[in-house]
Design brief:
heterodimer, A: about 110 residues, mainly beta, 4-stranded antiparallel β-sheet, 11 strands, globular, B: mainly beta
Chain lengths: ~110, ~110
């Protein structure tokens, strides 16, 4: 199995630009999570989906952030417009109901907003 | 409030010495407890998990952790540390399958020769 795939691995952009992060979960997993990791706040949940439906988006910082999951094998996290304080590593993770909460993490996308 | 506390931000251990990383949690429901490891520039890898049963759980890479309900703790241990164990370690707590995990801030482990 290829594991959770994220792209791009690194993104450098300028303030005000739109950023789109992508995630492909492990095949057969019906839960997908987006986390953000910063030095100050550690790992925080942004949003998670079950069967492509957003279940909890209370961690999304503000309206500039949006996430979609159009099908079981693809999700995007979009930031528009981006700000320097959005600089962080964004992780995608997936799991399955029968997996007992064992979440598999992707390698992350390191975002730098200048 | 639900939270995970890892009191030690950074620990240095000599190679071959034993290791214990502390984790305390506050969680309203029956907790599912996890330890993850993150090497520089990498994602998180699950070391071990506790759901129920035997309170001493074994994980990969020679790690083990003990769940102590009375102390709300889930400390990670390894009897003999290897240089390759240098990484950041995260304790996490969750509820039933399909809910988000709450992570501690992490403990960075350095291994000296």
């Amino acid at each position: 199995d290829a594991g959770v795939i994220q792209s791009p691995r690194h993104e450098v952009t300028e303030m005000g630009q739109e950023v789109t992060l992508r995630c492909k979960p492990i095949s057969g997993h019906d839960y997908l999570f987006w986390y953000r990791q910063t030095m100050m706040r550690g790992l925080e949940l942004l949003i998670y989906f079950n069967n492509n439906v957003p279940i909890d988006d209370s961690g999304m910082p503000e309206d500039r952030f949006s996430a979609k999951m159009p099908n079981a094998s693809f999700s995007t996290l979009k930031i528009q417009p981006s700000e320097p304080r959005d600089s962080a590593v964004y992780f995608c993770a997936s799991t399955t109901q029968s997996g007992g909460q064992k979440q598999f993490f992707g390698p992350g996308t390191r975002l730098t907003v200048l | 409030a639900q939270s995970v506390t890892q009191p030690d931000i950074h620990i240095t251990v000599s190679e071959g010495a034993s290791l214990e990383l502390r984790c305390n949690y506050s969680y309203g429901a029956t907790p599912y407890l996890f330890w993850y490891v993150q090497s520089p520039g990498q994602g998180l890898q699950l070391l071990l998990k506790y759901f129920s049963g035997d309170t001493l759980v074994q994980g990969i890479k020679g790690f083990e952790a003990e769940f102590k309900r009375s102390q709300s703790s889930f400390n990670l241990r390894k009897p003999s540390v290897h240089w390759s164990d240098a990484a950041e370690y995260f304790c996490a707590v969750g509820a039933k399958a399909g809910t988000a995990l709450i992570f501690g801030k992490g403990t960075t482990l350095s291994v000296s020769s």
